[in-house]
Design a protein that fits this description.
Strand content: 15-25%
Strand order of the largest sheet: 1-2
Number of strands: 4
Helix content: 40-55%
Mean pLDDT: 90
Oligomer: single chain
Order of helices and strands: EEHEEHH
Largest sheet: 2 strands, antiparallel
Number of domains: 1
Low-confidence stretches: none
Length: about 70
């Protein structure tokens, strides 16, 4: 799909068609992430840093289940 870069105030932006917004489940004001890959750039709703932090948190919760249970009492 070919998109055009347009001026937005003092910046530039790409306008995403409604069909693309629907497929990404995005609305005006939502945040997206631009990831650089070996093949170019990728726009995604996925935040790899948040996913990494959640993996760490889940690991801690799994290993320290008893401590967390005591703290919750």
């Amino acid at each position: 799909m070919k998109l055009k870069i347009t001026g937005i105030g003092n910046s530039a932006g790409v306008i995403l068609p409604k069909e693309i917004l629907a497929r990404l489940r995005l609305e005006k004001g939502d945040e997206v992430h631009l990831l650089e890959t070996p093949d170019g750039f990728r726009i995604t709703t996925y935040d790899p840093e948040f996913a990494r932090r959640m993996d760490v948190a889940e690991d801690v919760m799994r290993r320290r289940r008893n401590v967390l249970r005591k703290l919750a009492e």
